[in-house]
Design goal:
The protein has one domain: Spore Coat Polysaccharide Biosynthesis Protein SpsA, Chain A. The chain is built from 8 helices and 7 strands; from the N terminus they run βαβαβαβαβαβααβα. A 7-stranded mixed β-sheet has the order 3-2-1-4-6-5-7, with helices on both faces. The longest helix has 21 residues.
Length: 229
């Protein structure tokens, strides 16, 4: 029987961790790795796993297109749910069942209950992003209470087929990590069901990236000043 769950793993220069990520993820779901024009041996390592699908990008497209290409593969191949996760072991594959077994809904957000070795600036940035985005979501639907999502910047998520279809139909304006917020907004504004589950977050070198900070700040300003449509 075909697995109804697919894990999509965007990867860029993750040769140090991708093998372990795949090995620890395979017991739970099928896997697609989207190699976003890595310059190291990421693609070669993924190819060594015969039961893992590899999508290669000839040039780096950043997070949005990598995730969307994985979603398109999942949609075309009839998967009911897709999970997205980090290739650098920030997300523990052993917690995949927590997302898979969550109640039926369109989006499962993971919130980082336990944050190991996470710098203070990243904690502050994540908290600020979540506060601003909750307010921005409320401005779309003023008749509802202000949302109280705990963490909107975690990429460890579960999307339903219906949510995937919605995101594939919409034109994404996201450039990088702001895709996480943009996709949440699309799903929320279409009155789809969203729930949250706690995870353990292990800060890793792959997530220590100046671009994360830059994109997050840009995203916050965009949402606050323009309430992105």
């Amino acid at each position: 029987m075909k697995n109804k769950y697919l894990v999509v793993i965007p990867a860029y220069n993750e040769e140090k961790t991708i093998k372990e990520v795949i090995q620890r993820t395979l017991p739970y779901a099928d896997i697609v790795v989207v190699n976003d024009a890595s310059k190291d041996k990421t693609a070669e390592i993924v190819k060594s796993f015969k039961n893992v699908v590899l999508i290669n990008h000839p040039k780096n497209t950043h997070i949005p297109q990598a995730v969307l290409d994985g979603m398109q593969y999942a949609y075309d191949n009839g998967y009911d749910y897709i999970l997205t996760m980090d290739a650098g072991l920030s997300h523990k594959p052993e917690e995949i069942p927590d997302l898979l077994n969550a109640p039926e809904c369109d989006l499962v957000l993971s919130y980082r209950g336990e944050k190991k070795h996470t710098p203070l600036y990243r904690k502050v940035l994540s908290k600020a992003a979540t506060t601003f985005i909750n307010i921005a979501l409320w401005r779309f639907q003023l008749t509802k209470p202000i949302p109280a999502f705990k963490d909107v910047t975690s990429g460890y998520r579960r999307y339903s087929k219906e949510a995937v279809e919605l995101l594939l139909k919409r034109e994404s304006k996201a450039k990088s990590f702001d895709f996480l917020t943009e996709s949440l907004m699309f799903i929320y504004r279409n009155n789809m069901k969203i729930i949250e589950v706690p995870i353990t977050y292990e800060f890793s070198n792959s997530s220590l990236n100046k671009k994360v900070v830059k994109d997050s700040i840009s995203m916050l300003l965009d949402i606050l000043l323009h309430n992105r449509k």
